[in-house]
Amino acid sequence: MQTIVKPRRIAVVGAGAVGSTTAYTLFLRERATEIVLVDNNTDKARGEALDMQHGRPFAGGVKVWSGDYRDCQDADIVIVTAGVSQQPGETRQALLARNATIVQHIVQEVTRYNETGILLIATNPVDVLSYVAWRTSGWPTQRVIGSGTVLDSARFRHLLGEHFAVDPRSVHAHVIGEHGDTEVPVWSTTNVAGVPVELPGTQKADISAKTRDAAYDIIMAKGYTSYAIALALDRICAAILHDEHAVLNVSTLLSDYHGVSDVYMGVPCVVGRQGVERVVTLPLADAELRNFRHSAQTLAARIRSVTSE
Q1: Catalytic-residue membership of 294
Q2: Which of 68, 79, 102, 119 shows the smallest number of beta carbons within 10 Å?
Q3: Distances (CA, A) of 144 to 117, 208, 271, 284
Q4: Mean pLDDT of 153-166
Q5: Which of 105, 158, 174, 179 is catalytic?
């Protein structure tokens, strides 16, 4: 008897710079057998999908098309990138009210057709909007994930790799908390191939600031970020689809994490086929703990501002 294998489908809601680059990255790496782009601008979504499809003879057998929310029905993962984009000089939090409304609408539409997939939120400010998505969906928290500080941690590792002239993949370092201005680089556990990193305070401050402000620098230069966040989302998708049990600093709902609860923040999580399988409690130095709790308080206030009845 022939076994019918269900196609793996990823739906990307939002065909702007982040959404289209993410879809293209997933397409090149063949993370799924089907990729669907959903956007209010149907011509843009159609054009992006058609452009990728013309590359199938070079890239493999992934089917890409533009669709609508009904195409999210069989999606294993729905990635939400749609929203008002961050402008030069604008903070992620300035986007909050407008994008909260957009994400609520998207999640309501997605959950009309999909009850079993995983929501992966990338729209900024991602931690607050991941909380909004979770509350709107009614889904278990492990299946509503924010991209969190996966990208921030990669930027941190890149800068440390440059400083020490080593491959950044040999640098083990975490950024936790908000994906934004109150993020916390965890210097106390940072190491290169197991060797603790020792740097003067001024150099630590410089690398921390460059990590935090990286998006602002890129936006000032080219108007938006796209490539690295697409790779970060691709990495999260791979961990889910291949049930890797990989430790990634995604944004998830915390419950007494160093005393922090009821807020979505980026922390090390074990990510597999069911989403966030468990949260890893990272040891923190006293100053890191204070900064982490400050980040949590900041995000909690913003969450209240968009979820209060």
Answers
A1: no
A2: 68
A3: 9, 28, 12, 26
A4: 98
A5: 179
